[in-house]
Amino acid sequence: MDADEILRLDLRHVWHPYAAVPAGVPAHVVCRAEGVRLTLADGRELVDGMSSWWAAVHGYNHPRLNEALRGQLDDMAHVMFGGLTHEPAVRLARTLAGMTGMDRVFLADSGSVAVEIAIKMAIQHDAGHRGRSTLLTVRGGYHGDTFGAMSVCDPVNGMHHLFSGVLPRHVFAPRPPAYGLDDDDPRLAAYLDELSALVAAHADELAAIIVEPVVQGAGGMRFYHPACLRRLRELADEHDVLLIADEIATGFGRTGELFGCDHAGIRPDIMCVGKALTGGYLSLAATLCTERVAARVGVLMHGPTFMGNPLAAAVANASLDLLAERPWRAEVAQIEAGLVAGLAEARDAPGVKDVRVLGAIGVIETHRPVDVAKIQDIVMARGVWLRPFGTLIYAMPPYACTPEDVDRIAAAMVAASGVL
């Protein structure tokens, strides 16, 4: 099909994410992805500042990842995981356990499903103990689009308010103080006291605490002080409550540490990973837990049809091997420095509320919701692909970006901020 036919059929049949029917923002036909660039059907070449929703950390069409997929395909594309096992999944579980210090690995289909599994683990863990089923989290969070995951997303400012009347009710703490506050800042001390009081007040109903470590992703792209995470770990221990770390967006180096929890020097009881796990090649996620949690849960009542898919596990193994070999810390630090320097000019734009950078994450927050189509036209004219939402123009570039690529991304974001 030519591009016109693809777009015609897309408009007729496809329902895109977070979009009405028909979509209010036009789609663009991609015909190739190579390195950190997307080639559109009209010939334009764009630096992908989104890493395909934060997943393609190594870039596209990587020979090592391609080879892993082709090699696995010759053996088997899929086999059920109930009663059977295979080397790619076992290797992946061993690698993830070694990276995280978590003992048990439950492989799933997507990040949202990984969060659902984590919630079920926590509830089953407590079922034979005290029967508690409430979770505590913080406002401004996002954990996915399925029902259990939606219930621990921000109930007021999140994207799931339409379902608030049918979702389970959980306990929400205020948004945490921003990353970068001094450790002795009185605002931080006051927040930690408030957090302590809230957990204590609800301890008799809490099965777990769930948070995105240090970075709140799609709920607002906010960075918060690691002391909040340390205090949650202490409170979870004090009140015999599980701590769940949703590392789906923050895992595998995105924040400058291997995992968001590393900023606080803590380990959760349950951890969710996904997105960059396969380098953006196939949908795969995992929910990890300690041996103590697994022993108390017993039989986990969950079983995805494509759990442990050999193709996905094989490419995940290759992706994690590649991550271990590449100087990702230096690459992320270089991206961070480029975004800090490149986005500084946007602070003076009248429509800009805040500019912030952490690791390979750059954010321009605006006072009012942005016009997505208008912003995309501006950045695409500068050779960059971004997908703004709400009041956010943001980037999460692949680690493979050169300084010139990062400069281009930052310049496009600044140009977009100038028309707010």
Question: Could you walk me through the main structural features you see in this protein, from its secondary elements to its overall organization?
Answer:
- Pyridoxal 5'-phosphate binds at residues 111-112, 246, 304-305.
- Its main location: cytoplasm.
- It catalyses: (8S)-8-amino-7-oxononanoate + S-adenosyl-L-methionine = S-adenosyl-4-methylsulfanyl-2-oxobutanoate + (7R,8S)-7,8-diammoniononanoate.
- Its EC number is 2.6.1.62.
- This protein starts with a helix and ends with a helix.
- The strands form four sheets. A seven-stranded mixed sheet has the order 4-12-11-10-7-5-6, sandwiched between helices.
- Helix 4 (87-100) crosses helix 10 (310-325) and helix 5 (111-127) packs across helix 9.
- The chain is globular.
- With 420 residues, it is of the alpha/beta class.
- It has 13 helices and 16 strands.
